[in-house]
What we know:
UPF0353/GerABKA_families, 504 residues, 15 helices, five-stranded antiparallel beta sheet, transmembrane, alpha+beta, 12 strands
Amino acid sequence: MSWFSLKKKLSIPTTKDEEPLTISQVIEDCLSSNDFEHELIVTPYKNIWISYFNTLIDTNKLHDDVIEKIQHHQFYTPEDLRTFIPLKETKLTSDGKEVADSLTRGHVCIQLVEDAELCILIGIETEDNRQITIPEVEFSVIGPKESFVEGIDTNLNLVRKRLPITDLKIKEFIVGSLSRTRVCVLYIDSIANDDNVNTMVERVSTIQFDQINDSSYINQMIEDQSNSPFPQFIDTERPDRVAALLSEGKVVVLVDGSPQAFSGPTTLVEFFSAFEDYFLSWHLATAFRLIRLFAVWFSIFATPLYVGVLTYHAEIIPQDLLVTLIVSRSAIPFPPVLEALFLELTIELLREAGARLPTKVGQTIGIVGGIVIGTAAVEAGLTSNVLLIIVALAALASFTTPVYRMGNTIRLIRFPYILAAQLWGLIGLAILFNFMLVHLLTVTSLGRPYLAPLYPTRLADFKDAFFRLPFPFQSKRPIHLQTKNNVRFNKKKAKKKKDIDEGI
């Protein structure tokens, strides 16, 4: 239990004039929990009282590094006891609040007398973390195969190994009145803009919530526009990507218990850039980015265009194609909008079923269900085969988005466009697109423009936006980040070296 729960249970007031929480009060309150141990340890020299939560500590360390040492050394004071404990995380304290917080984080409290108000705290927290595995969401054929785990210390180690510099700063906060979750803000001091760092630190440190289970909680709480469907921070499970983002001048947040980090400020274009692009040649990376951008537009507008054109603008369809559409829809009793909504909702149901079921069963549901339902819908006259192909291609196109949150946004905004196409045709699509564009112009990430480098126009940043130019062309960091040092390397010294047969 945390200090806040202890304070509530003991009805301890918060004013400065009243008595502080004592160690005896803390131990007395913890004794009501079945996993709390408060026992007398008999030694040849002096008996001691030891208190701890047995579900939080490493019992091997307790017996080998604490009890075993105490029984073979002579001591008279807590200071003497501290000198021969072979553990770094030891401290003396008489603060009941600190004792309560430490006990719930895997510390052992040792007292020379049962009601003593001075104790020694020894950190022997158990380390039952998941092993480092390959990335599951951002998997790449080429490149590192490490991903974050739920232990924040392990995640910080993975980042530190890739950025072994003293300029990498870490600010740690405790967030959540019940969960007491460790949250770390990471940045490179000599690169990151102070305004970006201060904004992130202020927002994280002022969060008021009781339970923080994952980084997505904090992500939603500190966004500039929480009512926008567009994500304003990029999530990643890859330590190598975090290192790259930090070196660009971004600010990264890691949360204990979460295998995902997120960073900002970010732009809309970055959500369609996969980190694997940097492991491929720039020709391939550029081609794949353009394919993703086209896929996004197709996923959003393919079905609405079908509805709008068939409802209001049949005259713009070529005659040969019009015959095919008439034959395809000859037996369909529904207007195009109901036909489209039926298929779109079916696709969403298959997605949710595949995502919630176990992996092997989910794959089977997605493949077999799609084939069976699609074929049955066409044969039953509920939908046309032309629209079935369009909706299936639009669903496939939405899967090309590298960032999961943005993929969900694309899934959502298709439906307003379908309704706009039914109401006003192509004019409705244009109106809704203008509304979305105005909204995107107002969205910011840590106060930075969301549509950069499109608006405000930063031609220099196009080298790693829609295209991925060769590394020698990326000698400067993105302008929209306003970094302290925008030079990544000396471009003149990065010239191609001569071959051995060209002489010196």
